[in-house]
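Write out the 3D structure for:
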Amino acid sequence: MAHAEVCIVVVEDDHHINDLVALYLRRDGFRVLQADDAEQCLAMIDRETPALVIVDIGLPGALDGLDVCRNVAARTPAVPVLILSARDDEVDRILGLELGADDYVTKPFSARELVARVHAILRRTAAPAPAAATVTEFGSVVVDVGRREARVAGAVAPLATREFDLLAFLIRNEGLALSRRQLLDGVWGADWFGDERTVDVHVRQLRKKLGTDLPLATVWGLGYRLG
């Protein structure tokens, strides 16, 4: 299957890993831009908005991979990010997800599995918007699903792609108690590889960014309910 029109930026200072990831992606038909550090990566993103950024946390220079996540979330929030890292620490995983990363892969990793994760992320981010635009209000919070925009007291909330997808899914199922597994299947897709705590991280971000007017309740022992 050809993906020549789909551009992916890979930023990794280990040239062997960088070249290996690029090789497998190009074999699968993607166009790949390779960067050695965060500055090069951000320049590439400014020059050409990619479909996905694959970034190592431990990068040389003043900026690391987490800084790349912050910049992507601020400048091009619709672009998904997949983190590569030798750090398997839960704190790093959670921080990466809180900064808007869509997935987190630890080294060493299977190049084929990495490509499978890339496909899974691109399928999720390419999902069409609902046919009918839906505007829902929760006090000072106004969510326009058709425009993929959430506002708090009139100001646009800086939601990452997956945060908005989760919010839209909760709105479509307003009033229902949903398990973490149901939320993962509905938002991340049944082929997603991560664990259920990812949902908790994204819920925490929604509460932080949208405030207490969003009636997002924890259903203990199960998951969450909106409304």
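Residues 135-226 form a domain with the Arc Repressor Mutant, subunit A fold (CATH 1.10.10.10).
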